[in-house]
Amino acid sequence: MNILNIDEYSYLKKKLRREPNELEQFIISAEWSEHCSYKSSKKHLKLLPMKGNHVLVGPGYDAGVIDVGNGYVVTVHIESHNHPSAVEPYGGAATGVGGVIRDILSMGSRPIALYNALRFGPVDRNSKFGSKNRWLLKNVVKGIADYGNCIGVPTVGGEVEFDKSFDNYCLVDVASIGYTKLENLVMNTAKKGDALILGGNATGVDGIHGASFASKNLDEENRSAVQIPDPFLEKMLMEATLEAIENDCIKAMKDLGGGGLSCCLSETADSLKKGFLVDLSTIPLKQKNMTDEQIMISESQERMLYIVNEKKKIEFFKIFDKYNVNYSEIGYVTDDLNLSVVREGNTLACMPANIIAHAPLLDRKFKQPSYLKSILKSFKEPEPQMDIKKLVFKMLSNFSICSRKWIYEQFDHEVGVRTVSKPGASDSSVIKLDEGKFLSFKLDGNSKHCYLNPYEGIIGCLAESLRNLTCVGASPLGIVDHLQFGNPENEEIFWTFLQTINGIRDYCKYMNIPVVGGKVSLYNETSSGPIKPCPVIGMLGLIDSKNKIKYPKYTSNQSIFVIGTTKDEMGGSEYFEYCLNVLGGKVPHVDLEEQRNVIESIKNLIDGDLITGVHDCSKGGMIVSMLEMALHSNIGFKVSVDKMPNKCSRLDYLLFSESHNRFIFTTNHDSKIIRYLKKRKIPYARIGASSNDRTCLIDYKGKAVFNSSLETISQSYHNSFTNLFTKSN
Amino acid sequence: MVRIGITVFPGSNCDRDVHHILNNVFHVDARYIWYESSIDNFDCIIIPGGFTYGDRLRAGAIAAHSTIMNKIMELADDNVPILGICNGFQILVESGLLPGALIVNESLNFICKWMNVVVTNTDTPFTNLYDKNQKFSIPIAHGEGRFMIDDKSYNKIKKNNQVTLEYWKHNPNGSTNNIAAICNDKGNVMGMMPHPERGSDKDLIPAGHNQSSILIFKSMINYFK
Questions:
Q1: Mind listing the pLDDT tens digit for each residue in A569-579?
Q2: What are chain A's domains?
Q3: pTM for the complete prediction?
Q4: Cα(A403)–Cα(A392) distance, rounded to whole angstroms?
Q5: Which of A55-64, B43-52, B176-185 has the lowest mean pLDDT?
Q6: Residue of A90, A325, A414 best to disrupt the B interface, most CBs of B under 10 A
Q7: Which of A146, A323, A415 has the CB atom closest to B13's CB atom?
Q8: Starting at the edge strand that comes first in sequence, how are the strands of the sheet with A252-255 ordered?
Q9: What is chain A's mean pLDDT, rounded?
Q10: Catalytic pick from A44, A77, A81, A413?
């Protein structure tokens, strides 16, 4: 087997001006894998706006760093563990959590919150791969729970989506937020002679070739490439590291993730503009007789690399002894800019770190996918549906819409005593910082929209995140993006990737929101084909007063307002795809100027204390938002939906359209609200009122089209997951 | 002023939360006790929640056999109030300071949610500010929180008034007779599965719930007045 492909081999040979030996090729193959090198995406990622007033550290580091004032910073990072989770969901998901926690730790900050965005194939009992998809879901949730709960970092938010393109596969994205004083940030520095210390787990044969495994389509069940989770060890490693930082013992550090020692050492040496000399005989091993290659590319978890100055070494060791965490001095910093790997005096590999850390970047070809044309050609407008009540109940029990209580109750979301808004309770998570401030973070993705129109789709995800943040009174600080696609060597897939980048660039530039970090995951394919394009956006915002945090709830006997225009934008909607099994149609478009205006208006209404409860409108349409408000508050309502500002041709579209820039809210300041919205030229309507009982009534042109008690609605909405996993399979 | 010690074992993860609430909400002198250090001059001890030793073997089993527990048993004999929360309760049961056993939840899943409990014994250092039969809100978060005890022993602890909190209306884990917290026969050692530190900051109380779990800590402080 060739370790490197011909092109990369000759490029390396030219750069080194000699033949690379076998170990060197293994080191290079790990670091130049798509997973570690971003060789397909790097050129394009540079187009994203990354600068902002509050951004202290942007993309390219283990985590983005944002200034939140009063001498404190927040760190944020997103990771995925898709390939491993697809073959070993429990271990794959758990080690994904472990990895993102170490990224946050690498900046010197304590992780204070975890989030996840999950994608599975349909789990319904009658779906073709339902049983496998359920197995994946159940074990991914358990893996995330067991790791996060044990380590004591709360999982406070997340989202999940189901689509056939994820059959027999899954996407497991995990994000984490860290918090620390500005002065505790570890901004890596090193000088010649500083010690390189490897702390935490021993290195073993688990996770061999993990990075290259994740850089190919999933065509075999390569379980040995999946790492083994040990949250207890990571907890000890975390506490030891934070105590060592408090005592100023650490000059630089980096976590070991994809590509193992090869990537960690070469990237760290390169970014410090130093060389490293590492002796493989000093690396603590789990198994005897591991080869040099295995040691260099093993992705065993719960390991960190530290650079410690000679004078602080003893203190550092004492702290690690206190926590009973293993460590080994594996080498030292040099000035020669090389990564030298030796064993008892013999040089095994020696290459400039700069060459290893910078794979030759690729110019991938792209072309508009032919599926777009064929969908356009075959699309037929479905017949208008008359049985609204049946459709509404079907939608509420849809796994992409219904309550996720079964999932989030398995996560400890309270540890850390910062969780203000509990999972499921508000449009975006809210955690308490010190000094009277609150932080909100929301993950959003929509693979159905992104498949039919990757450009509009990603802008829609960003717009949805911002609307969610706005509902809890937060102003955006930045985003992290997680770009997940199939094989980039496929020109059509690469086109969808580029469209996504363009969308993020255009939105973020217009709204002036910086990209502070991200991750690219490619080759998400199984033998039955690629996943739909699945970018996931995480938006971070700051709330300066607790009064501004609003919940999606009615208050009895108040006016219900809807703002924003509902249009016949049904492409990729849950209504088309889940309820009617129709593919195609126009994907909702975001008018950026209108969004700015609508966001600004909701913000001002919240600041002026004029609205009591507010909810964004997205997946499932306005009908879902209306009913969720009722479910959260246990209060019924009566509305006339034909009053909603709309350009819809039919009732089912009006209820289920996923048009952007819309909110629903309650108020008892009707005239003030109307005056304000008129002035700002926002399309609005008072569509009805909340009641003081538990009945939900919807009229359309004077005729009742939906009439149900909250008890019945609640059964559809709350029981889907529980029924799935408690009744016998 | 009352001095409270908070034990820290490898894997404790609610130690910082309890420390924060006691120091920054109550402004009392609460300090960490690292499991390898000695315990001196504390008026009461809290064993906080977490996953000591990663829950290996059984939740709380390894911590219960560490040397610091010998000292805690002596303090228990000397009537020093000792409160175990969640994993702390598991440690107290495993060490024999409290009767019964805590096993995996009936649902087999970890459960994190807000509950209502009812106070059944107000004659302890941890519940003296509650009214008898007072109901209050408090969150739980555990995988092994199902308190089990045989009938004979149950009758004994019931008769001796050792059941201090019961889940109200809904039992989340299948515990015997809805038990959420118990104390020893003298009343100075209590173990509870729910987390009072998570219900003590008003900003963190969800709609429809109250902040009364704060009375657990207030009772402890009140006990020394």
A1: 999 999 999 99
A2: 550-729 (3.90.650.10)
A3: 0.96
A4: 15
A5: A55-64
A6: A414
A7: A415
A8: A252-255, A303-308, A195-200, A327-334, A275-279, A338-343, A346-352
A9: 95
A10: A81
